[in-house]
Amino acid sequence: MLAFLLIVVVSFSAIARLLTGLVGDSLFAEKTRAEQRTVESLATRLSDIMADMDGRALYTAVQQAGSQLGGRLLVLDTDGKVQADSFSAYNGMRLQLAEVISILQDGKSVDYGFHLLPGGGARQRPSWLDVLGYRDLSQVWVGYFTAAMQADGRPLGVLLYSSQVQDMVDSMTALRDEMTLYFLVAALGVVLLSLLVSRWITKPIAALTKGIEQTTKGDFTSRVRVSGGGEMARLAETYNLMSERLENLDNSRNQFVSNASHELKTPLATMKILLESLIYQEDMDPALRREFMQDINKEIDRLNMVIGDLLTLVHIDSHKMKLRREMMTLSTSVKEAVRRLAPLASDRGQEIEVALHDPCEMFADPAKLQQVMYNLVDNAIKYTPDGGRVRITLERMGRDAVLKIADTGVGIPKEDLPHVFQRFYRVDKARSRETGGTGLGLSIVQQIVRLHGGSIDVESDQGKGTTFILQLPVK
User: Fold this and answer.
1) Using CB atoms within 10 A as the burial measure, which of 44, 92, 139, 179 is most buried?
2) What is the pTM of this model?
3) Could you tell me the domains of the chain?
4) Using CB atoms within 10 A of its CB, is residue 103 exposed (0-12), middle (13-18) or buried (19+)?
5) pLDDT, tens digit, for every residue of 206-247?
């Protein structure tokens, strides 16, 4: 905060000096142009007098012009010697001034320059900013303005006008002091206002920071109180929403780990009991022993199914699952799933009705969609009583392929419908395990469909049956 306040003060001071400099440059440029025009005009008038070689007339004219201008005029010949001085001090002296040399040697017609010279009693205006650096107040600023003197194209010499510009410098110094003072007062006001605003702003930021620290420690229940409006309120709302999602994600993860552990533990516990029976019952009937071994084999198969489904979900969640798309027809996948599951339906006296109104050609992954078709048809057969019916329809609606798989099973209660695609969710856990399900199939189906840019929904009327509706984009 201290650095910020220092930057504000320094910036305001720099702006004050910059503005003063711009104003000073403008004033000096205007004065320079005016003085150059005056000297150039006066040089033309005095050139005629100098050409007549009348020294007294030249001196009188220089003295009168200098008095009118309020400065000092000097006329120099082509050797740089003073021929006339309005102050009568430098007569006969040679002046080696850059402004004179540029006229005599470099061929310029006019020139000027500013010099800091001893004031001879005059002093510069003091400034309270002098405490920031040393400034010799006994020296004053003088401007030298020169113009070439000619007659009939023949060079005669140089007219030098020496003008006091210290009054202008003093005015600029006063202006700089005032502007700096005003800007410092404004900077102080900004600083005080910044302190008040920062206190008002940092309070919710501190609360938000505390909440973030709690989140980083694993406490996802942390929330920030939202008050007022504006960006900070929206930031607090965003943080609360993020915390809520993290809390839900953490709860889902814990629930997933718990469910996965339970699903893996159940077949392991069953196998342990069966193996212990085989180990400790040496005189077990061979038929019973064979039955136990078959049960262990089934539990191993079930364990493999759970692990396989878990690995599939891990690949999907980590975005490592890649679709191997190619041109295919969805009707072919439906026919293949029905062909493979027809014997299972026949054993249970079920009827499978298939109505494929369109082949539904699309650019998709055939293997993944085959898995989807197999899972949905398999579920329909498993949860439909013996002698029931499964109806499959496929049609094209606009740019989507719409597949409906309806059964005449027991249906799903309304309160369970929103959860059927959740991992390990079972409407009837005991019945689901009897059918060999892992509780992950529909979740995998939903993820594969989403990877293809489609959607899946479910409708059910308890006691009458269930319908899964699948939509996929076609070519």
Assistant:
1) 179
2) 0.47
3) 2-122+138-190 (3.30.450.20), 230-317 (1.10.287.130), 326-473 (3.30.565.10)
4) buried
5) 777 777 777 777 777 777 776 666 777 777 778 788 887 777
